[in-house]
């Protein structure tokens, strides 16, 4: 069994030592079906880091998966909170009349869409 000094618990949760990358970020890619090499490349990890992280996830699957699900719930609550906080602001912005330079751009876009629909 490997020594899991690569995986440490920080204020962000289970993380790759010396990085800001959490195991929950890795799980996002794992659940999306990404192979280990692509996850490694995407997150700029070493072979040892990705191997240790995936080994840790496999060894502690129920614990890591429970924490991951909690992270997803927390993120959804935060997203919902900020949507509610910004709902009125976004509605007010949407109700503003377009600026003159935007009107010209919108007219150009409408003409391009009409041309595409005719083809």
From TrEMBL:
Protein name as catalogued: DUF433 domain-containing protein
Name of one Pfam family that matches: DUF433
Top-level taxon of the source organism: Bacteria
Gene3D superfamilies xrefs: Winged helix-like DNA-binding domain superfamily/Winged helix DNA-binding domain (1.10.10.10)
